[in-house]
Amino acid sequence: MEEGGVRRAPIFFMAVIIVMLVMSLAALILALVAYLTQNTIEYMNVILSVSAIALSVYLLIQMRRKPPSLGFETLKVSTVIKCVKCNYESVREFERGDYVLKEVGSCPKCSGTLHIYSIFREVKEREKTY
Fold first, then answer.
1. CA separation for the pair 91, 122 (Å, rounded)
2. Alpha-carbon gap, residue 100 to 119, rounded angstroms
3. pLDDT (tens digit, 9 = 90+) per residue, 66-106?
4. Domain locations in the chain?
5. Which CATH architecture has domain 77-121?
6. Residues 125, 105: contact at Cβ < 8 Å?
7. Cα separation of 76 and 98, whole Å?
């Protein structure tokens, strides 16, 4: 999704929530006016209006909050490249499309063929809490 699309979605949902809030407030006011003029309470109208107001306020509060972190860390994946002839070795960051035994160029030392030897991710040691 493009940058503008990501930005427009929350604004659209915010507008829908605000429209729902305004309509439920209007319905609650109409129920209040009916009670004052006719001395009859429209229970369903009041219950639905109050529920919609509560839902709208809850959704507005949730949209304004920062999303919770799920605890996932981005993993650092590295690629080891080796020369077939002289065992020259280099490590670089993983690039999309890398796979083991892929030819990636020529050796800077002996002009031999460089192949991806291995792909691994670095593991962080977690502190033990007792």
1. 12
2. 7
3. 776 676 677 789 999 999 888 899 999 999 999 999 999 99
4. 3-64, 77-121
5. 2-Layer Sandwich (3.30)
6. no
7. 14
Q: Which two tokens stand for residue 29?
A: 């006011």
Contact 115, 104 (CB under 8 A): yes
For 12, residues 6+ apart whose C-beta sits below 8 A from its C-beta are none
Please write down the HEC assignment for all residues of the chain. CCHHHHHHHHHHHHHHHHHHHHHHHHHHHHHHHHHHHHCCCCHHHHHHHHHHHHHHHHHHHHHHCCCCCCCCCCCCEEEEEEECCCCCEEEEECCCCCCCCCEEEECCCCCCEEEEEEEEECCCCCCCCC
The share of the chain scoring above pLDDT 70, in percent, equals 84
Of 57, 64, 27, 60, the residue nearest 45 (C-alpha): 27
Hunting for tokens 């503008």 — which residue is that?
A: 4
